Amino acid sequence: xxxxxxxxxxxxxxxxxxxxxxxxxxxxxxxxxxxxxxxxxxxxxxxxxxxxxxxxxxxxxxxxxxxxxxxxxxxxxxxxxxxxxxxxxxxxxxxxxxxxxx
Length: 102
Known about the structure:
By secondary structure, this protein is α+β, with helices and mostly antiparallel strands.
């Protein structure tokens, strides 16, 4: 289920205090990067990453590729940094705001 704009805003606020734990460099989006993002999403649900200058891909391309490979939701891209979210259904860590039905 896709996240709403209010939930995305909540996740952006939570990401401000998070450390950057994934860096994508000149090797690009390798299997090891995908595996580390997948493991981090399983443990934290919210992952903040950075694309180094040596990378041949733009931060948006990296975000889209990682989201597709890890079945996650994109939260934001600002400059060289990006944020990804994936709900851990077995052990949720982040409680998202509920969307109101009209």
